[in-house]
UniProtKB/TrEMBL annotation:
Domain (Glutamine amidotransferase type-2) ranges: 2-218
A Pfam match: GATase_4
Alphabetized InterPro entries for the sequence: EgtC-like, Gamma-glu_amide_hydrolase, GATase_2_dom, Ntn_hydrolases_N
Family annotation (SUPFAM superfamilies): N-terminal nucleophile aminohydrolases (Ntn hydrolases)
Protein source organism: Marinomonas sp. (strain MWYL1)
Key words of the record: Glutamine amidotransferase
Keyword 4Fe-4S: no
Record protein name field: Glutamine amidotransferase type-2 domain-containing protein
Nucleotide-binding in keyword set: no
Domain of life the protein comes from: Bacteria
Length: 218
């Protein structure tokens, strides 16, 4: 299981939440208490907003707890809105292109979950991504496919609809292939200067609920 956090509130140095809390994300990536996987060592990523519209990004394949560059960046970057993600791969290789968060224009996206039978669906799912978005397909993960399909389905104007249509498309493909493994989807996405939206599916994965949060850490 991947682990992630999203913060929105008064600007803080990233190290105050990533490293200095008793149960910080970095600590959990090394020694998780409640997880089938106690170590998340398949990559790390940061996405943060400051004065610019588009977010800053940092991805690395080193374990988060041993990345000296991350420690230095977190000590010096101050933000009122940022995402952080430690990855536990569900099958795709460990490289920077597969690390969350993913970005498009001024959007950030992180996902925890898995498309059941993804390898047998991957070619078909990629074909659903419109040509003008396919240049943003940098990695090989199912998470990135979900994000790009959400954009194609109207994320920028109607997030709830985009999530519902995207998950329905994936479920339809899974049914056609008679895939019995579940579709697991929990995500957070963000556009500049707005509250992060946390999304999780209900009603047998056919609908999605999104909630904007007041200043908080997820």
């Amino acid at each position: 299981m991947c682990r992630w956090m999203a913060y929105q509130g008064d600007p803080v140095y990233l190290e105050s939440l990533l490293f200095k809390q008793e149960h910080s994300l970095i600590h959990q990536s090394l020694s998780a208490r409640k997880s089938e996987v106690t170590v998340n060592a398949d990559g790390f990523g940061l996405g943060w907003y400051d004065e610019r519209e588009e977010p800053g990004l940092y991805h690395e394949v080193l374990p988060a707890w041993s990345d000296s560059n991350l420690k230095s960046l977190a000590r010096h970057i101050k933000s009122g809105l940022f995402f952080a993600h430690v990855r536990s791969s569900t099958g795709t290789e460990t490289n920077r292109s597969n690390c969350h968060p993913f970005s498009y224009k001024n959007w950030l996206f992180m996902h925890n979950g898995q498309i059941g039978g993804y390898e047998s669906l991957r070619w078909q799912l990629d074909r659903l991504i419109p040509e003008h978005l396919y240049s943003h397909r940098h990695g090989a993960t199912d998470s990135e496919v979900i994000f790009l399909l959400m954009i194609a389905n109207g994320l920028e104007t109607n997030p709830e609809y985009a999530i519902e249509i995207t998950l329905s498309q994936i479920l339809d493909m899974m049914k056609q292939k008679n895939i019995k493994d579940p579709l697991r989807f929990t995500a957070v996405f963000q556009t500049e200067k707005k509250s992060p939206r946390f999304a999780f599916p209900v009603m047998n994965w056919h609908q999605a609920y999104t909630a904007s949060n007041s200043p908080s850490t997820l």
